[in-house]
Amino acid sequence: MATTYKTLGQVESTGTISTYDTLYTVPADTATVVSNIVVCNRSASAQYFRISCSDTTTPDNAEFIAYGTAVPANDSIPLVIGLTLDTTVKYLMCSATSSEVSFSAFGAETT
Questions:
Q1: Rounded Cα gap, residues 61 and 104, in angstroms
Q2: Any idea what DSSP says for residue 81?
Q3: Residue 43: burial class (beta carbons within 10 Å; 0-12, 13-18, 19+)
Q4: How many CA atoms lie within 13 A of 56 on its CB side?
Q5: Alpha-carbon distance 33 to 43, whole Å?
Q6: DSSP 68
Q7: Which residues of 57-96 are buried (b: 16+ CB within 10 A; e: fewer)?
Q8: Planar angle of CA 5, 10, 13, nearest 5 degrees
């Protein structure tokens, strides 16, 4: 089994909290550990974000790991998380109240 450490995904929010963006999708025959997620607010006012891990691109209530969490103006929130994903729970989804919020995920894929 080979392990590759990498940037798993980077995405800018659509700016609609109820519209989810796919930050990362687990490839076939792969297990992934998401070690860090960074939420960056590039705007001059506080914004709110959501993050979920899901088996579909439309998360259920039980699948959220952050919901309505504030990120201060011109600031970032690093999440050290150790989240595991595989082909059954394979989507890392995110959304925010502004298109000036971006998300980055870092971790390792094992194939």
A1: 22
A2: E
A3: middle
A4: 5
A5: 30
A6: E
A7: eebeeebbbbeebebeeeeeeebebebebeeebbbbbbbb
A8: 155
Residue type, 68: G
Q: By three-state DSSP, how is residue 56 classified?
A: coil
As given in the structure block, the two tokens for residue 6 are 């990498």
Alpha helix (H) residue ranges in the chain: none
pTM, two decimal places: 0.94
Q: Give me the half-sphere count of Cα atoms (radius 13 Å) on the Cβ side of residue 32.
A: 27
pLDDT, tens digit (0-9, with 9 covering 90-100), for 53-72: 999 999 999 999 999 999 99
Which pair of tokens denotes residue 15?
């700016």
Rounded-to-integer distance, Cα 32 and Cα 40, Å:
23
